[in-house]
Q: What sequence folds into this?
């Protein structure tokens, strides 16, 4: 399980307006590109000094490639990162205030305490 | 010595700014009461005429990231740019520039390290809404230099609640001993019960109103021991998955000591409860 890599995907997509739109419209392609080109970039280092070992598991790649926020929650991705990015991508599709956020919560209604561990 | 003139502990609600800017015809029904309560709270700071603000908050995965995560960090810079693209996007928060107070930053770092806290520091820190929300609410003119102190309430493993209280007590000792004639105010922001990205988010109230009621009593009464007797790192998961932000309130309780708040107010909103507390350690008219 590489929760850190999943979180890194969510973090680096969320903070870039162009990547938010790219991930909204092409989740599978963006996930593949990111894993191949971006996953190993150490954020405070130059490109020539990247890591060499980071990758997504099949389950993680599938969840990110299908916008499956329930699977991301269940695997312990940081819920703040997921929620923030999902609001950026999908709130616009819901004209009623909070409808997106409440629908997001409803799909997690089966979850009981303790929630999945988000430690990385 | 410096004079600690006010200690404020408050929630930081990122939607306040936008709500307060709406014309009456577009504002939600709770906006009027919210703006009134914030205006009254603002006065508790203004009346103490502070010269410098020590501001406690927590980065929400903006500049601080999991590849290099400090537990407690003190900003030491002449200026702090503030707010991020995703805060403009989601909350409508404008970007700000805050002035820093490097002398007090340096003093807190030196004394804090010597008193047992290996504080991280940053010479180039862009602060986020945990710092700017109280600027918008209690000091909208943004005219005072600040010392931002960040805590990790977000990325496990976290320091335990007792550690937050102890850091608050240490910050109090440091400010009280600062050789300066300036008037210092502390503003710390956190959360009561809160759920983000889970099944209990965005309900009609905070996810655990009973916790919120108890928390308000602990803070208002300066009941540090009662609070610590009921709260552990693990127990904070139960009221809501983002409730560890309550530990920033506990840090401020450590600064205020075993004293009842001189001002306490709260407002029940959808999603979360707002709460506002002020202590005047040297009297309201010091």
A:
């Amino acid at each position: 399980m590489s929760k850190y890599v999943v979180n890194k995907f969510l973090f680096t997509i969320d903070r870039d307006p162009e990547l938010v739109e790219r991930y909204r419209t092409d989740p599978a392609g963006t996930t593949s590109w990111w894993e191949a080109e971006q996953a190993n970039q150490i954020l405070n280092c130059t490109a020539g000094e990247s890591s060499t070992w980071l990758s997504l598991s099949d389950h993680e790649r599938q969840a990110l490639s299908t916008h499956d926020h329930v699977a991301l929650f269940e695997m312990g991705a940081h819920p703040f990162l997921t929620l923030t990015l999902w609001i950026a991508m999908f709130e616009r599709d819901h004209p009623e205030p909070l409808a997106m956020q409440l629908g997001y919560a409803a799909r997690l209604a089966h979850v009981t305490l303790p929630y999945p561990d988000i430690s990385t | 010595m410096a004079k600690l003139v006010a200690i404020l502990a408050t929630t930081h609600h990122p939607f306040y700014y936008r709500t307060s800017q709406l014309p009456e015809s577009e504002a939600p029904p709770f906006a009027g009461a919210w703006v009134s309560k914030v205006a009254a709270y603002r006065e508790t700071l203004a009346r103490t005429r502070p010269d410098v603000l020590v501001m406690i908050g927590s980065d929400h995965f903006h500049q601080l990231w999991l590849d290099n995560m400090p537990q407690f960090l003190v900003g030491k810079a002449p200026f702090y740019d503030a707010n991020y693209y995703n805060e403009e996007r989601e909350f409508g928060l404008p970007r700000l520039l805050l002035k820093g107070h490097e002398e007090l930053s340096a003093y807190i770092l030196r004394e804090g390290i010597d008193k047992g806290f290996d504080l991280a520091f940053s010479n180039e820190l862009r602060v986020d809404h945990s710092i700017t929300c109280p600027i918008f609410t209690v000091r909208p003119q943004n005219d005072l230099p600040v010392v931002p102190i960040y805590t990790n309430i977000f990325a496990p493993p976290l320091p335990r609640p007792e550690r937050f209280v102890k850091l608050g007590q240490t910050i109090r000792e440091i400010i009280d001993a600062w050789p300066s004639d300036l008037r210092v105010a502390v503003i710390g922001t956190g959360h009561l019960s809160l759920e983000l990205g889970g099944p209990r988010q965005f309900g009609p109230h905070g996810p655990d109103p009973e916790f919120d009621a108890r928390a308000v009593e602990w803070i208002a009464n300066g009941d540090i021991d009662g609070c610590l007797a009921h709260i552990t790192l693990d127990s904070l998961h139960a009221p809501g998955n983002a409730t560890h932000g309550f530990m920033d309130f506990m840090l401020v309780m450590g600064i205020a000591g075993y004293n009842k708040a001189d001002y306490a107010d709260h407002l029940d909103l959808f999603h979360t409860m707002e709460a506002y507390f002020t202590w005047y350690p040297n009297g309201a008219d010091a």
About this structure: Chain A touches chain B at residues 4, 7-8, 11, 14-15, 17, 42-44, 73, 78-84, 87-88, 98, 101-102, 104-106, 108-111, 113-115, 117-120 (CB under 8 Å). Chain A has a mean pLDDT of 97. Residues 9 and 38 of chain A are 9 Å apart (CA to CA). Residues 3-106 of chain A form one domain.
